[in-house]
Amino acid sequence: MTDKGSEGYCAPVCCCVAYSTLGTKPGDWYLPSVGELYQLHANRVDINNARSSLSGYDSGFNNDSYWSSREYSSYGEYYVYLGNGNIDYYGKDSVFLVLGFLALEV
Question: What's the rounded mean pLDDT across residues 64-83?
Answer without folding.
Answer: 91
